[in-house]
Known about the structure:
Helices cover 51% and strands 7% of the residues. It is mainly alpha-helical and 394 residues long.
Amino acid sequence: MEFGHPLINEMMDILPYEKWKVVRNCLSPQLTTGKIRTMSYQMLDAINDWMGSLSAKVESNKTYKFNPKEVYTGLTIEVIARCAFATKINAFDDEKNLFAQNIKRLMIQKKEPDILWSVAATFPFLQCIPPFLPKEVMDFFGEVLTRVLRERRTSGNPKINDFVDVMNDMIEKSTTSPEFKKLGITETTAMCQAMFFLIAGFETTTFTLTMMSYYLAKSPNVQQRLLEEVDDYLHRHGGKIEHETIAELVYLNASMNETLRLHSPLIRIERVCVKKWLHGSTGLIIQPGITVQVPISAVHLDEINFEQPEEFRPERFLPENKEKLNPYAFLSFGQGPHNCIGMRFAKEEIQMAMATILKQFKFEDTHNANIKIKPGRIFLNNYEPFELDLVKRE
């Protein structure tokens, strides 16, 4: 299907099944727990560099009024640049950086609803018409990717099996593998996955960190419990935050999941029916080829699935309460074979970033912040900007 640019047309989630399966199998080993451990060093370096820049802004008066979305965007751009593009850009300090500026132009959240996208959602053959992602921006990242991949191939250095090496492996197979040739998997296919990782990763993580900061500021008791957990964790591990031990922060993980339940970045998930399906009690029939859309908030805020669904209660996601939850009622990362391939990466980044912040600061709401969701969005939820205070801990 044509979506208006070669670097969009073959992103993993819009590939036909057989091609999707091969591409996903190529990328999945890169996003296992073991591989995340390797990337966690790059991730932590980016977080610590970002934290140093943020701390300098707080030091002068111990309180910093900030727009969470803007501040976290700088972090998530940096993490993606280092982990997926092998490029250090210091996006949080250099507002004129071309890489960062072009990523921000890809931000779906900033785009106002366009009637063409509503029409294209109904008539897919029109999807190449809406000016959704600027051609010049996609061309910029195409040039960056081509350069990074070429430099890695010709460097003569041993493989480090990061995302860049995986893409180069795909490119090599595109000329040697009969299966790749049969399915039409090319160098462009490999580059599309880097763009998919970029677009799907940085904005959703920014959204989650922003909403989590909001709920912690609005829930002092929850934040205090989380601060105590982080302090105990740091005491046990000599002040270090590391991949090998981050799972010990169970209340942090629960707070992240509860944030995602109340405000999932994604508006809906979609699945295409592949065989006739009959719902026994209603007689509803779904025929092959029909796209089924599941609105995430309708599931997450249904009291059948979660008691008192409007309340921020991280305790519901603690290990001792796991048996009380329907796992298929939590859809922020999708479910089944088509779930979010970057789920482990995203969770690790969110947890490490939040633990690093809470090591030094806490959130306060002195500006009566409110979440005002913007209507008319198609893919990602959007909201009006708000401000919180970042306060240095005593």
